[in-house]
Amino acid sequence: MTAIVAPADTTRRRPAFSLARWLERPGVFSWMMVGPPIIFLGMLVGYPFFYGIWLSLLNRPVAAEGKFIGLDNYIADWHDPAFWQVVINTFVYTIVATILKMVFGLGLALVMNQDFRFKNLTRALLLLPFIVPTVLSTIAWQWILDPAFSVINWTLVTLHLIAPPGPSWLGNPDLAMGSLIIVNVWRGLPFYAITLLAGLQTISPDLYEAATIDGAGTWTKFRYITLPLMKPVIFIVTMFSVIFTFADFQLIYVLTRGGPANSTQVFATYAFDVAMNGGQFGQGAAIALTMVPALALMIAAMAIYLRPSKS
Amino acid sequence: MTVENRGWHVRFLKLWLPLGVSLIFALFPFYWMAITSLKTNQELYSRKLTPLYVHNPTLKHYIDLFTETSFLEWTWNTFVVAVISTAISLIFGAMLAYPLARIRFAGAALVSFAIAATYLVPQPLLFVPLADLINKLNLNDTLTSVILTYPTLLIPFCAWLLMGYFRTVPQELEDAARIDGASRLQTLIKVVLPLCGPGFISAGIFAFTLAQNEFLYALIFLTKTEVRTVPVGAIAELVKGDVFYWGQLMAAALLGSVPVAIIYSFFVEHYVAGLTAGSVKG
Questions:
Q1: Scanning every residue of chain A, which has its alpha carbon at the shortest distance from the alpha carbon of B238?
Q2: How many Cβ pairs closer than 8 A exist between chain A and B?
Q3: Which of B65, B220, B259, B263 has the CA that lies 20 to 30 A from A263?
Q4: ipTM summary value
Q5: From the CA of B5, how many Å to the nearest CA of chain A?
């Protein structure tokens, strides 16, 4: 096409001009722009992803050459009772924490959606748990939940609600998961509340007025106006939250390292344990990759229940 | 009178009570961090004294933190890494966002898909192969290792957010510049970018706080004191075996949170805009 309009000698006489013209073409300009970041992401996300799949098919101790063993790592997972414990733990952690964050987050958003003084200040303060580096705030929680000097136990003992010394919140296998979930909710709740609040503010007050005139009560308005209109926002917020809760590492690593007796071990901490502490890169990669189908299952289930109904 | 009273009760139950409980729940750990860092060890491990406030405040833990550990170095490392990876993410994010927001080109759908996929890939999925890769590149124990890997978490978000801002620039402005002979690149730099300042602030603040928050890659790649970031330094060096230096840990946690909290308090509206943009606009 260019050959017809621009004969060879013209191009030679004014090369700079035609290069500039060529760069102005939409496709060329766009790819010159997106090319470098795409290559960057390709090298540091795309390549590691496929390299991880390859690693998972190897017997690869940290300091040795890998040996191809096919699906043996996955078969070993399947026969490993600790792995199934990890699967159950991850699902419990994600489902319970997500439901709590969704319910209380929506509740808090509804409370915040009223007019009151210092609204912006309150919103800023409520977001603090979400912006402060997780590891640092989790260290504070670890001290709050300390087996010997927990302030919660001190309060309960002082009020004569329990006998001293009180439970070990992180050391008791029956309580550890619950403690982790509470800390996760503490950190994630602001994200739900503030995002859902922004969603609530986009709903036109006219709708509520019209419903009030028709005699609708608070519950009816919530059920038939607020919820349906909020569904798309709830869906997106929940999807993000599910992915990041499912793959959570920091909080659990700091508080329990997966213990006691694997009772809080999840995919991320288990893969870390096997790959970094145990030095089994292949096995670790395989554990991390088994997150993908589990995560896909979870997102699919959520999409079915929460899918914004197309009008 | 009775109506007013009743109104007050309802408002208390519907507003102030839930709000108060939420605020106490949200802020108590920070209060606890602050007072623990000011207590003497004797007070920390006493079962007799009320732990709810400080009896004999001391700055000992802060002094120890500065003189006996490399906390200042960790803070500097965290800052350098967060600033550089935020800058990289903003530039690359804008390079992805502008064509996607403005130009119809072949492969645009593929690029959007790649960004969304990158956004949703959780870190624990990649750390094993990345650890091997960083090892092979001899980047272990260098800040470069985390400066290279953090942007992979931040770029998709920056691109997504900036796309929304680029779309708000009136097309007519760009057309006018192009008719006057400006190239596409000149139009972007001289017309579009100056109008998108708030977008860059939102994306920058958000990326900066995410970069400060990152832990997993730093934990794996940085094993020497002099290259550590604050979260990794605190976990690895203020806990020795089973011994927790609680006073110093709390001082480090508080000081490590301060830079983020200060920047956040100045730009809270931008931060909220960034936080909610993705879910509400979409």
A1: A139
A2: 266
A3: B220
A4: 0.89
A5: 18
